[in-house]
Design goal:
The chain has one helix at about 10-15; strands spanning about 1-5, 20-25, 30-35, 40-50, 55-65, 70-75, 80-85, 90-95, 100-110, 115-120. By secondary structure, the protein is mainly beta. The longest helix has 6 residues, at about 10-15.
Length: about 120
């Protein structure tokens, strides 16, 4: 999937000028492995989209795994947990409409063990 976005780094350096610079980002789902209760490696894929996000962040968990006690936390730049929600296998929608614009971290944990960390940009 190709995502068009404006580079915030470039935009910050051009403050006060009316210039729009677009970059093309190629989005690839991240895949990682986790140990199941029988100690067999089970690959799972976690997709987080859209990025940047406006009012809803989608977390899609796929793969051969039994999902036990999964929790997604959204953490601001100061390390404060802004929202925390139990999630399931497949697609989960997290309401981020009340968050202010900025960069946030999504942390997905299974049985209180971190299994996935991803950053996203919240826009107004």
């Amino acid at each position: 999937m190709i995502i068009d976005c404006i580079s915030t780094d470039v935009a910050a350096n051009l403050k006060g000028k009316k210039v729009t610079i677009k970059e093309r980002w190629k989005y690839e789902p991240l895949t990682f492995a986790t140990l199941s209760s029988s100690n067999e490696i089970s690959p799972i894929s976690v997709d987080i989209y859209p990025n940047p996000a406006f009012d809803v962040l989608n977390i899609n968990i796929k793969g051969k795994t039994t999902v036990n006690d999964l929790v997604a936390s959204i953490i601001n730049a100061d390390g404060k947990i802004m929202t925390e929600q139990g999630i399931q296998k497949d697609i989960n929608n997290i309401d981020i409409s009340t968050l202010v614009s900025g960069v946030y971290t999504v942390k997905v944990m299974e049985n209180k063990q971190i299994v996935f960390v991803f950053k996203f940009i919240k826009i107004q």
